[in-house]
Write a structure and sequence with these properties.
Blueprint: H1 7-18, H2 22-29, H3 33-41, H4 48-57, H5 66-73, H6 81-93, H7 97-107, H8 114-126, H9 130-143, H10 150-163, H11 168-179, H12 189-203, H13 207-231, H14 234-240, H15 247-264, H16 268-279, H17 289-312, H18 319-328, H19 334-351, H20 363-367, H21 378-401, H22 405-422, H23 425-438, H24 444-465
Length: about 475
């Protein structure tokens, strides 16, 4: 039978080896002799802070004894959350995720510890330690999977937001799992959850799901807005204050999402119907500065999108009006400019428009297509990268068809890299097809760059499948 060593034994051996007395070692650690003596004799357990001081005094790396700490003081002991909580935070700080998994696995058989672990997970999330928080949320969710509790739903929401990544293939499954838990959230919390879920499906171009979720969000938001202004209670106001946006925004944003879905399905008449709906927000009762900010945004989006839908439907006469509106909107955020550029490129390729002079206006946006968005908003993190990849493809298509092969291939390769990061097979294959169509115009260096990129992506996929050794 394997005997697990103890931290006390390791410390005792170190003291003998170095010829140190308890008092001398206490001076090194900054702890008094009595505490050191109690730890060595086993009369006193130790905190993670004391363990860190002992570890440092012994000249060992931070966290060196953490696995032994779990063995000696957590596994096979009644869980002591006063000891466990600071230990989990310290493990997260040192990125010792396996240690966190061991602790969670050791104590999560008992539902009594779920509330505290959830509280710790929320603390880690607030610190930005997402991987550590994810382990705790998953542990709580697994323990409470049959409880149908609101805490379970919140855990699933947190898991969803943490797990959503650049990998669109993975995001499909993550979104599908979370969707089943949305209705278990508090009525107010459901609005942000539906907004985030809709934006993920938007980035995945699953327009039926976008439309379905947007309609749910609109119906729920209308109910909450009516309740808020009928009751006008402090409790209702405080509840809606939890939202990331003013309550009316979810109603207007639902119309914007439905318009987007109709646009992508080629139904521009219906897209305009929804756009006119969110352009007119006279029904909004609030008058504060934040409200006026959002009303201004929706007015700007509606005006730009009305022109965009007309352009995409074939009314090319509005191109210069659209461009003038974009130029006049000097305060337009970068993400909107990327969307506007994409609309223009799609119309240009669809209706064979000449944009050689016009594209000079978008040099900044074109240069930013390969950059990662800075905002942590789900729309910016998910939709804009997808738009950027598609925009790169549309730019490549335009330049190659207009004989500007150098620029065309450059944008094509950037789009391929973006598509690979997103794990979007459709975009990647489309880029490959476009290269094949124009490869006769590619110089040898361009062909080499293309084949090197294909090989890199192939090797990366082979490595993910666990067959890397077969390629050596």
């Amino acid at each position: 039978m394997k005997i697990t060593p103890t931290i006390r034994a390791e410390l005792e051996q170190y003291l003998k080896q170095e010829g140190l007395s308890l008092s001398q070692f206490g001076q090194i650690t900054g702890m008094n002799r009595g505490i050191i003596s109690s730890i060595v004799t086993g009369n006193k357990s130790m905190s993670v802070n004391q363990l860190d001081l002992i570890t440092e005094a012994m000249g060992l790396p931070e966290g060196h004894f953490y696995d032994l700490f779990i063995e000696n003081f957590i596994i096979d002991h009644p869980p002591n959350m006063r000891r466990i909580e600071p230990f989990l935070f310290r493990c997260a700080e040192l990125d010792k995720l396996d240690a966190i998994r061991r602790v969670v696995g050791a104590i999560m058989d008992n539902l009594l510890y779920s509330p505290k672990l959830f509280e710790i997970a929320e603390g880690l999330l607030a610190q930005g330690r997402l991987e550590a928080a994810l382990i705790l949320y998953e542990g709580v969710a697994e323990t409470e999977r049959y409880q149908h509790s609101e805490r379970l739903a919140i855990c699933q929401y947190r898991i969803f937001k943490i797990q959503i990544s650049d990998d669109q293939s993975q995001n499909v499954g993550v979104a599908a799992v979370f969707e089943a838990f949305v209705e278990r959230l508090d009525e107010i919390d459901q609005l942000d959850a539906l907004k985030d879920l809709a934006n993920v499906y938007r980035s995945l171009r699953k327009w039926d799901k976008v439309d379905e979720i947007a309609r749910k969000m609109r119906a729920k938001a209308e109910i909450q807005y009516t309740i808020k202004h009928q009751q006008n209670s402090r409790e209702q106001t405080e509840s809606s204050d939890k939202l990331s946006r003013p309550l009316f925004v979810y109603i207007a944003y639902a119309d914007l999402l439905c318009a987007n879905a109709c646009e992508e399905q080629g139904n521009y008449e219906q897209a305009l119907h929804y756009t006119y709906a969110y352009s007119n927000l006279d029904w909004v009762r609030e008058t504060n500065e934040d409200t006026q900010h959002w009303i201004g945004l929706f007015k700007h989006w509606s005006q730009a999108n009305i022109l965009a839908y007309r352009l995409l439907s074939g009314d090319v006469s509005v191109l210069h009006e659209y461009l003038n509106y974009i130029d006049e909107s000097s305060d337009t955020i970068q993400e909107d400019r990327v969307t506007q550029l994409l609309n223009i490129m799609m119309a240009a390729n669809r209706y064979e428009l000449d944009l050689n002079d016009i594209l000079k206006r978008f040099e900044t946006e074109i240069g930013s297509l390969s950059q990662r968005p800075l905002s942590d908003d789900m729309y910016t993190q998910q939709v804009i990268p997808e738009y950027s990849a598609l925009c790169g493809y549309e730019l490549a298509y335009y330049y190659l068809n207009h004989g500007l092969h150098y620029d065309g291939f450059n944008h094509l390769f950037c789009s391929m890299v973006k598509a690979h990061i997103l794990n979007n097979e459709t975009y990647f294959i489309n880029c490959m097809g476009l290269f094949v169509r124009f490869k006769a115009h590619a110089v040898p260096e361009t062909k080499t760059e293309f084949y090197n990129l294909i090989e890199k992506v192939w090797l990366n996929n082979v490595e993910k499948s666990g067959n890397a050794d077969r390629c050596e």
